[in-house]
Amino acid sequence: VQLVESGGGSVQAGGSLRLSCAASGYTRSTYFVAWFRQAPGKEREGVAVIHSQGHYTRYADSVEGRFTISRDNAKNTVYLQMNSLKPEDTAVYYCGLDGGLSWVDYNYWGQGTQVTVS
């Protein structure tokens, strides 16, 4: 299983970025995909999660209303649209696969993509 994130970068406060997570080699049809982030000196935290079937999503309180997770199953890709970015959103963002609804027990991870908000 391979996860490849892209779309990170530097942006001013109030700006937007869209992250992508492309998955390959995973054969299950029902699963959760999640975005996490880790800021310097802090633990990794769950940001958003989406189920592979239907439209179930969940967000951390800190990003609710600003971030949107979506998926394109035909492309095996999950997106994280981030709007109204704040300096406190600065972190390395990771996608995770094959875990739980509450951002626990994820078995597969991408390499991460840096998001810097100034």
Annotate the secondary structure layout:
Layout: E1 2-6, E2 9-11, E3 17-24, E4 32-38, E5 45-51, E6 57-59, E7 67-72, E8 77-82, E9 91-97, E10 108-109, E11 113-117
Parallel strand pairs: 2-11
Antiparallel strand pairs: 1-3, 3-8, 4-5, 4-9, 5-6, 7-8, 9-10, 9-11
Explained architecture:
- It is a single chain.
- The protein has no helices and eleven strands.
- The protein has strands spanning 2-6, 9-11, 17-24, 32-38, 45-51, 57-59, 67-72, 77-82, 91-97, 108-109, 113-117.
- Strands 2, 4, 5, 6, 9, 10 and 11 form a seven-stranded mixed sheet that branches. The chain has a four-stranded antiparallel sheet with strand order 1-3-8-7, with no helix packed on it.
- It is globular.
Quick summary:
The chain has 118 residues and is an all-beta fold. It contains no helices and eleven strands.
Largest sheet data = 7 strands, mixed
What proportion of the residues is helical, as a percent range? under 10%
Determine the mean pLDDT. Answer: 94
Q: Give the end-to-end Cα distance, rounded to a whole number of Å.
A: 34 Å
**Rg over alpha carbons:** 13 Å
Keywords:
mainly beta; 7-stranded mixed beta sheet; globular
